[in-house]
Structure formats: structure tokens, C-alpha cells
Design goal:
This protein is of the alpha+beta class. It has helices spanning 2-22, 26-49, 66-78, 91-96, 117-131, 133-136, 143-167, 171-177, 187-207, 212-234, 250-263, 283-295, 297-310, and strands at residues 57-62, 83-87, 102-107, 110-115. The chain starts with a helix and ends in a 12-residue tail after the last helix. Bound molecules: glutathione.
């Protein structure tokens, strides 16, 4: 549905150009407008007519989004079926004013949606704590967990600054992360993204104020969180949970998912190969990654362990690279 609406809106925007270029008559133009209105109306009716329960959850994502990975991981752990819809990176933010992940679900006859990974997790807890109490226990938002989650969300934002500081001057790598080779992203978006790259890169630079000072701030903020996690894990006998709960909870999955930006696990997003090859990364980025691994061995071993033992290759058989 959202893609169909985006398509109808796109056509409506392009229509004046088509009318001028093809010198269409008033009657033809009116008929096209009428057809578009009927199409939009039918799409709405089909949505209303769909039985509740069909397409229970739809998760909007982009190829490389550590915040989307956090929600995806928790949905997988919860064991609820969902359909993932991948968009090309940056298009949602700068042309629709939305970030991913977005969770869409049926509430009665209508479809509702929530953005922002932490709010999505609260919704899942609210819904499944009663329906599947055992399976949902890892989502319980205790005060300790929500306090850690806030710091982890800041860590996620600092990682965005860090990764873009290293990658924006490497269009091919950035475009790969934004999904130009990902067959699950619609082909028209992948093509559009290639054309728009210089604009998108500028917008990202401005949005995150990319520069030497923001890079330094982000890197030291990242190291602060890694040091805290490393210390907490070091105090425990086994690597089971940052907060010492004995078994991983959603903050552990969030930490690993957000860290996937530098840990580059082979099965990020339930896939079966790393999104970016470490050897292909800019040297300064590789140096930072080596430093994170060297200075924070328990934290980085924990990310690897969680990806190895708690992350399935859910969609390993789906087509991925074009
Ligand atoms: N606080 C938000 C942050 C989400 C966010 O920054 N998402 C990025 C991807 S990691 C995004 O939507 N980028 C824009 C886009 O790709 O269109 C959350 O927790 O979900």
C-alpha cells in the first residue's frame, strides 16, 4: 500500500511534464486525472476490505540500517511473522520525512504504523506480554534496560556520524550500503539513487554536520559506550547479558545490532554474507575498527557471539545482490 500510494503521488507530480511534453488535450488530461483518482480510491477500498490478520506485520527498512536491524532481530526472536519492505537508503528521510524502521500492522480494518525503533519495541511488548508472555519476556522495559537503551540509541546516532565520515567520499561503498545492489529494493529506487547520489551525499553531510570535529566527537562517544559495555561484561563470569540478567534481552540485541556497523557480521539482517567487505573499506575506517576490537575485546567478542548464537539467517535464500 505505501508503495502504491508513493507511485500514484509520483505519477501525479510528473503529469504536468507529460501533458506539456506531449501537448495533450484538456479532455485527455482530465481522463488521466480521473483514472488516477479512481486508482487511489480503489487502492484505499482494497486496503479497507482486506481481512484483519492478513499481512500481520510489515517492517519498512533499508539495506543497511542498524536501527532497523534492532527491530528485525527482536521480531525474529519474538517469532512473529512479518514481511520486510526495503526502500533505497535516504529516500524516505529526505523525500517523505520519515526514518526507518517503520512497523505497519492492522488495527481492526485500518493499518497503523509506528516509527522509531524504541517505540516499536514498546508496542511489541505491550501487545505480546499478554499474548506470549514467555517469548516476550526479553522485551520487558525495566528501568535499567530503558536507561541503557537511551545510551545505546545515542551510540547508534554517533555510529551514523562515524560511518558517514568514513564512507561518503566512497560513492560505490555508500551506494552499496544504501541498497543499489540489493534486489529486494525496487529497481526504480536503485536507479534513482545512483542519479541522486551527489544530492543525497550533500544532504547527509548537512544533516549529520559531517566534518573532523563531529567525527572526533562521535568516535569518542562510541568508545565511551564500548568501554562501559566492555567493563560490565568483564565483571561477569560468562558473556550472557550486558546488565547481568543471565540471558540476553532486547538491550543486548540492540547493542549487537547497532554495533553491526563496525563489526560487519556475515549474517546482518538475517543474510548470509557481510554487506561490506572489510578489505574494501577506507584504511582509516579499518584502523578504527581494529582499534575498537583491540581496546574493547569483551564488547566486540559479545557482538560476534550474539550474531553467531542468536541471529538466524532468516532470509538467506532470498535474492540479494544484483
Ligand atoms: N531514532 C530512530 C533513528 C532511525 C534512523 O536514523 N534511521 C535511518 C537508517 S539507520 C534512516 O531512516 N535513514 C534515512 C533513510 O534511509 O531514508 C530509530 O530508532 O528508529
Amino acid at each position: 500500500m505505501p508503495r502504491q500510494q508513493a507511485l500514484i503521488t509520483g505519477i501525479a507530480f510528473l503529469l504536468p511534464i507529460v501533458v506539456a511534453a506531449a501537448d495533450l488535450s484538456l479532455l485527455t488530461t482530465l481522463l488521466i486525472v480521473l483514472a488516477l483518482l479512481v486508482w487511489a480510491w480503489l487502492a484505499t477500498l482494497v486496503g479497507l476490505g482486506r481481512k484483519p490478520g492478513e499481512e500481520a506485520f510489515v517492517l519498512d527498512t533499508i539495506t543497511a540500517s542498524h536501527f532497523a536491524e534492532k527491530v528485525r532481530w527482536c521480531l525474529d526472536k519474538l517469532g512473529v511473522p512479518y514481511e520486510e519492505r526495503r526502500w533505497a537508503g535516504t529516500l524516505n528521510a529526505f523525500y517523505r520525512g520519515r526514518t526507518v524502521p517503520i512497523l505497519r500492522f492492522r488495527t481492526g480494518r485500518v493499518t497503523s504504523h509506528i516509527g522509531n525503533s524504541s517505540e516499536i519495541l514498546r508496542y511489541l511488548w505491550g501487545t505480546f506480554a499478554r499474548e506470549r508472555p514467555d517469548a516476550a519476556l526479553f522485551l520487558e522495559p525495566t528501568p535499567e534496560r530503558t536507561a541503557l537503551e537511551k545510551r545505546l540509541d545515542r551510540y547508534g546516532r554517533m555510529l551514523q556520524v562515524w560511518v558517514y565520515s568514513h564512507l561518503l567520499d566512497e560513492p560505490e561503498l555508500t551506494l552499496r550500503a544504501w541498497g543499489v545492489h540489493d534486489k529486494r529494493v525496487p529497481a526504480w529506487q536503485r536507479r534513482l539513487l545512483r542519479w541522486l547520489y551527489p544530492v543525497q551525499a550533500r544532504l547527509i553531510r548537512r544533516a549529520f554536520r559531517i566534518g573532523p570535529a563531529s567525527y572526533e566527537r562521535a568516535k569518542s562517544g562510541i568508545e565511551e559506550v564500548l568501554s562501559e559495555v566492555d567493563r560490565r561484561l568483564g565483571e561477569q563470569e560468562s558473556l550472557n547479558s550486558i546488565l547481568g540478567d543471565g540471558v540476553p534481552n532486547y538491550t543486548d540485541y540492540a547493542f549487537a545490532a547497532l554495533s553491526s556497523v563496525w563489526a560487519l557480521p556475515p549474517n546482518m539482517g538475517g543474510s548470509n554474507e557481510p554487506l561490506l567487505d572489510i578489505e574494501a573499506l577506507p584504511e582509516a575506517m579499518r584502523r578504527d575498527i581494529e582499534e575498537f576490537r583491540h581496546r574493547f575485546p569483551a564488547a566486540s567478542a559479545y557482538v560476534d557471539q550474539l550474531y553467531r548464537e542468536h541471529r538466524d539467517s532468516r532470509d538467506a535464500n532470498e535474492p540479494r545482490d544484483a
